[in-house]
């Protein structure tokens, strides 16, 4: 009994250690991935069957549709096109060139696995859920692909997460961490808002995509940087 009492605190302390590759970064990364996955599953469960969430989705879609105006629609169209597949991949390519120049190979791997990998994963989920997009008599956009989760939103969530995380590790970005993270969240949210406004997605499509993107990012950054920290620990001990 005494041995068990001594083992449990030491195990918990190890999971919260900042200087161990199996410590706090791994613990927080796993918790973040699990929490976002659980919330995503909860939204998927309620969004794809009759109930309060689909009703709310339709109310929000109708509210934006009847209030659409010419100038705002033009702005939303421009913003959403920038965050389409081509736009996100183009911005990712520019970031990749900077990472190659800096020889930031771990961040380059993170970018490749997170952004294109996450977008492909989301594409597969669309065919699993097969949710029909919002329907209007006079739609702003006519799209024939599936709706859940939002591809534009997850692309923004993935790209801006990687960009924000990389920027906050740089000397100039460490002191601006809250502002950088807030900007990444706002840009992702605006991408999702543009999709709802244009009638391309429901509210739950967007929220699910944000959670999916952040969960995918948390999972792979945890895996990649845990391996890197383990390799660094082995090299320093040799």
Question: Could you characterize what this model shows?
Answer:
With 238 residues, this protein is mostly helical. It has a domain at 76-133 and 143-225. Helices cover 79% and strands 0% of the residues. It is built from ten helices and no strands. It has helices at 2-15, 24-47, 52-66, 70-82, 85-101, 105-129, 151-169, 171-174, 177-197, 203-237. Helix 4 crosses helix 9 (177-197) and helix 9 (177-197) runs antiparallel to helix 10 (203-237). The longest helix is centred in the last third of the chain and has 35 residues, at 203-237. It is globular and about 65 Å long. 33% of the residues are buried. The mean pLDDT is 87.
Count the E strands: 0
Q: In angstroms, what is the radius of gyration?
A: 20 Å
Largest sheet: none
Oligomer: single chain
Order of helices and strands: HHHHHHHHHH
Quick summary of this structure?
With 238 residues, this protein is mainly α. The chain has helices spanning 2-15, 24-47, 52-66, 70-82, 85-101, 105-129, 151-169, 171-174, 177-197, 203-237. The longest helix is centred in the C-terminal third of the chain and has 35 residues, at 203-237.
């Amino acid at each position: 009994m005494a041995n068990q009492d001594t083992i449990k605190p030491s195990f918990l302390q190890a999971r919260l250690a900042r200087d161990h590759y199996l410590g706090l970064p791994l613990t927080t990364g796993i918790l973040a991935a699990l929490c976002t996955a659980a919330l995503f599953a909860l939204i998927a469960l309620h969004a794809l069957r009759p109930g309060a969430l689909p009703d709310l989705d339709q109310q929000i879609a109708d509210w934006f549709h009847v209030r659409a105006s010419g100038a705002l629609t033009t702005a939303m169209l421009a913003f959403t096109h920038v965050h389409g597949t081509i736009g996100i991949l183009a911005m990712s390519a520019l970031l990749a060139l900077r990472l190659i120049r800096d020889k930031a190979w771990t961040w380059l791997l993170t970018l490749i696995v997170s952004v294109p990998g996450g977008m492909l994963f989301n594409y597969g989920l669309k065919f699993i859920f097969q949710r029909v997009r919002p329907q209007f008599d006079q739609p702003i956009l006519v799209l024939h692909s599936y709706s859940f989760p939002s591809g534009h939103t997850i692309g923004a969530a993935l790209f801006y997460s990687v960009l924000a995380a990389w920027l906050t590790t740089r000397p100039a970005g460490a002191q601006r961490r809250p502002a950088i993270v807030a900007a990444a969240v706002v840009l992702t949210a605006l991408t999702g808002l543009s999709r709802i406004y244009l009638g391309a997605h429901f509210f739950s499509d967007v929220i699910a995509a944000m959670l999916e993107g952040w969960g995918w990012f948390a999972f792979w950054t945890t895996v990649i940087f845990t391996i890197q920290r383990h390799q660094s620990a082995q090299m320093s001990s040799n």
